[in-house]
Structure formats: structure tokens, C-alpha cells
């Protein structure tokens, strides 16, 4: 995608988005672990594992599609 | 459907956001604006601004292609339809999309790409001449900008009802954000945002079916609960209940789905609506252009997981029965609120912000798509051929940027107009449908048959469009005409749309054929690269099976058939 213009690939921005959201949601899930919100199936602690999944995927995208150094 | 989407009758806002949720929303706005400013430096030529430099990979173009149709109105509306009509709504994602996407990739994309057109009206200009192209460009430009306004208004209302936000605040903040990043980076920005939106929507909505199925102990448990809550009604089979119009809640016959939806309406939308085709035209080479819609078709097949399944789960687990917007009284929830209700049921702080951001991103990507397509069609198909032919490229880029800003303000004006006269919205939605089905007839005949003439193309398109408008108003006027055109006086709106599309396309084809027979065709030399029999299409006998679009297209169709059998 970036052959002509050397644009940072869109996947890198996707990675940033997922990583930031993953960390925030994971941290929020951990913080409310002993006092989960009043939602159905709150005992499953979905924010913790969903946040972790987003953070892992985001890190992967950021790493694989990190901007190349200019030569 | 969409106007009823906005008729929320909620006693209070549906959800309350925490500081974490607000941070998630704010971060999205900061990120897309940052990306817009970053991309501005790359959008310098016309090809960059209007076609993203024609350097997108098949994956990026494919995701943008399918995202352009994955806006929030679609999500909320189709989840509501799934609650109302059951799994029948899946037809619009499967048979009403996949064959058309595969057909676009394998059959039509080579012509769009080889002709180097920048738009669908641009192809009509080369194939037929300025009459058909002008008609198509004017109608598309007007409808696109009106749709953008409707989209903005819809977002503002949804945000008001779901979050309690002020309508003017939502309208202006989202519009100005879209305006800034599209004016800066053109189609680059629109496509980048659509890819972000794709991930947001999936990760924001996928938890609902996962947790829903955990709660109901799987698909069988969900079906059992639906039967228990709504005895005697079939919401979980796709084809069986369509043997008769009286056996299904939509009042639709399988003939309308196969011939109206699959063969005309979806073909028209996915292959000639420039908003979606523009994403594929940005592909870096012809193989990527052919692969993009096929890649998109696999993701499209999966979308019912996050749209239809939450609607069905709503029937199974929600303690209240949702009702039609027109019949809702204070305190009742409507069909179209099923997705926010399910979101609020399972998602606490953080996850709720993610879901709401996905909705906002969907709305904003929809606006960006409309505005960028409008800028392209106005600049290349109306301004350049009819107003200023030989200006430098920079002038057209500048025109595109100004168009984006002006288009946005027209959209905001439309949004306020709709706010004052809600019934306008039905007509705007309907108007868009008027042009798509006959346009498919005009484009496909032009591609496949070299004999079709300049005036046949124009008059066929005009006749098809006129017949579509006439049928719409006749069916609005009296049930008698619903019985005539839709074969059943009780046919609901969606069923009427299918038959309207079918008959308008037939009218277009018949008039085109008749006029062709009495007018003189263009010489073959003028049609090279535009018509099937006069175009050298690249063959892929040297590519491995896994690199051939044909292989993936056939695979998509096989999976489609298997899914139909499973959910028959």
C-alpha cells in the first residue's frame, strides 16, 4: 500500500487503537474485579480477557507493521 | 426502515458512560484527526485525493469495500429487523450480497479497472456518452449528499437517545471532524477510517453474541427460548417459511428474494453504487481489484454474527417485548433499540465505551464515504466535463477539497431539514433506491453487448428510473398497486422494494434493447477496453490456484450454499 508514497500502513494505526483500548479495558476490568458492574454474566469478567485479547492483537499489529526506518 | 429507527420512545437514556468510556470515545476522535493530518501530505494529485493513489492492497480495499456498507444505521436497523423478522433478515447479508460481490470481482471489475475510470458515471461517459453519464452523476451526487445529511441526523438522534447527548453537539462535532480529515487526506483518509471502523465494530459488537450464547447455553438453547417466548412463530429458518407469504413475519415470497434481491437489487448496489465501487478502484493492480470484493465477501458472510444473532438473542433473553416504532408508547422499547439494549445488558464501563465508539465510528465512516464519493463525482463527472474541461490537476484537487467542505455543510443543512420534517427521510431513502436497480441494467448491458447504443443507454436508464419512481408512489398511494407490483397486497416495505427493483431493471433492459434495435451502434474501435468481446482480459493460468480470484470466488459461493442448507 505504501510503495509509492511510503505511507505508514493502516494496520499500524489499527494496532495503536487496539493496544490503547485493550490496556484501558483490561485495567478497568482488573480494577472492578472485586466489585463488578451490574451487568448480566459480570462474573465472567469479560473486560479482563477481552481487554487482554485486544492488547495482544494491538501489540502484534504495532510490531509487525511498525514504520520502517528511513534510509 | 431508517425513519422508524429514529422514532425512539425511551423513558430515559439507555446507557450511562463512565470516564473510561469517555476516554475511549475521545481517543478515537484524536486518532482519526491525527491520521487525517498525517495523510494530507500524500494527497497532492487528483489520483491521490480521489482514488487514494490507486495503491491499496486487496485486503485494505476489500475491508474498506465491506466497511462502506457496515455503518451504524445498518447495524442498528438490521439488528432490529432480525428481532422483528427473525433470521430472514440474513438474506440481505448472504444471497443479497455474496453473489453480487463475487460477480463484481470476477466479471465487472476488470472493465472498471482496465478502462481506468475514476467512477461509475465515468465508465458510462466512456461507454455511452455524456447523456447517460450526466444523468447518473447528477442523481448520484444529489442522493449522496442527502444521504450524508440523513446519516448525520441519525447519528445525532441515536446519541441523544442512547447517551443523552445534545443533538447539535453530536451533529457539529462529528461533521467537523469528518470534514477536516476528508478534506485533508481525501480517499486516503476515508479508507483508513473505514478500516479502523471495521475493527472497532467487530471488537465492539462481538462480545454480545458470545455472551448471549453463553447465557442461552448455545444456539439450541436460544432457539428453545425463542419458541418458549413466542410460541407458534418461526424466527430461525431462512427458506422454509417463505413457501407462502403468510408463513413468515415479513410477508415475503422466495421469488422476491431470489429475483428481486439477489439478481437485481444487490447486483445493482454492490456493482454500480459508486460509494462502494470507489473503494475497489483504489486497488493497486487488477488482481487486487478482483480480489478486494471477494475478500470482502468472506467478511460480509460473517457479519450476521454481530448483527443478526444479537437480534435473535434479544428475542430469547430480553425480559420485555420490543415493538414497532409506530406502535410504541411511552416506556416501551422499539425493535431498533435491540442492539443498544443488548450492549447495555452485557457490557460495563470500558466495553460499553468500545461499543459506543464503534457506533460513532460507523456513522462517521458513513459520512466520510458519502462526502468523498460526492467530491469525486462532482469534480470528475460534472465539473470537469460540463464546466471546466482542461484545468491543471491541482485545480481539480482544490475543487475536491472545497467540494468536501461545501458538501458537508449541505449535509448539515439536510440534517436540520430532516429534523424539521421527518417524513423527508423516507423519501430520501427511497430516492436512492430509485436509481440503483436500473443503473445495473445499463452498466451490465453496456459491458456485455457491444451493439448497445449511446441513446439506448440513456433512454433505458431514464425509463427504468422513471418506472421506479412511478411504482413507488403508486404503492404508497394504494394497496391495490402493492398487489399489482409486489404480487401481494399485504407485502411489507422490504418486499415492495424488491419488486420495485426487479420491475424497474426489467423496464430499463427492455427499453435499452428496443432503442438499440433502431439506432446506430458505435464503431468497435471506440469500445475497446469497455466491452467484453473487445477487451483483452488478463488470464491467470500462470498463477497458483490459491492466487486466483476465481478459486476464492467459487469458495465463497460454496460456503454460501452450505450456509443456506444449514439454516434452511
Q: What's the SSE blueprint?
A:
The complex is a heterodimer of chains A (71) and B (568).
Chain A (H helix, E strand, L loop, with lengths): L9 H22 L14 H19 L7
Chain B lengths: L1 H4 L13 H22 L5 H6 L6 H10 L4 H14 L12 H17 L5 H8 L2 H34 L3 H39 L1 H10 L1 H12 L24 H19 L1 H8 L4 H17 L1 H14 L20 H9 L4 H37 L5 H28 L2 H26 L5 H24 L1 H8 L6 H26 L30 H18 L2
Helix pairs in contact in B: 2-9, 2-17, 4-9, 4-13, 4-14, 5-15, 6-12, 6-14, 6-23, 7-8, 8-9, 8-17, 8-18, 8-19, 8-20, 9-17, 9-18, 10-11, 10-15, 11-15, 12-19, 12-22, 13-17, 14-23, 15-16, 17-18, 19-20, 19-22, 20-21, 20-22
Question: How does this model look, in words?
Answer:
Chain A is mostly helical and 71 residues long. Chain A has helices spanning 10-31, 46-64. In chain A, helix 1 packs antiparallel against helix 2. Chain A starts with 9 loop residues before the first helix and ends in a 7-residue tail after the last helix. Chain B is mainly α and 568 residues long. Helices cover 72% and strands 0% of the residues of chain B. Chain B is built from 23 helices and no strands. In chain B, helix 8 (130-163) crosses helix 9 (167-205) and helix 9 crosses helix 17 (351-387). Chain B is globular and about 65 Å long. Chain A binds chain B through residues 1-5, 7-8, 10, 13-14, 16-18, 20-21, 24-25, 28-29, 32, 36-42, 44, 46-47, 50-51, 54, and chain B through 20, 23-24, 27-28, 31, 35, 38-39, 42, 48, 53, 55-57, 60, 188, 191-192, 195-196, 199-200, 203, 207, 211, 214-215, 284, 317, 344-351, 354.
**Rg of chain A, alpha carbons:** 16 Å
The biggest sheet of chain A, with number of strands, parallel, antiparallel or mixed sense and barrel status, is: none
**What's the average pLDDT of chain B?**
86
Percent range for helical residues of chain A? 55-70%
Over all CA atoms, what is the radius of gyration of chain B?
A: 23 Å
Distance from first to last alpha carbon of chain A:
19 Å
Total of helices of chain B: 23
State the largest interface: A-B, 33 and 39 residues
- The helix tally of chain A amounts to 2
SSE string of chain A, helix = H, strand = E? HH
Sum up the overall morphology of chain B in one term. Answer: globular
The main β sheet of chain B shows up as:
none
Arithmetic mean of pLDDT of chain A:
88
- What is the H-and-E element order of chain B? HHHHHHHHHHHHHHHHHHHHHHH
Low-confidence stretches of chain B: 1-11
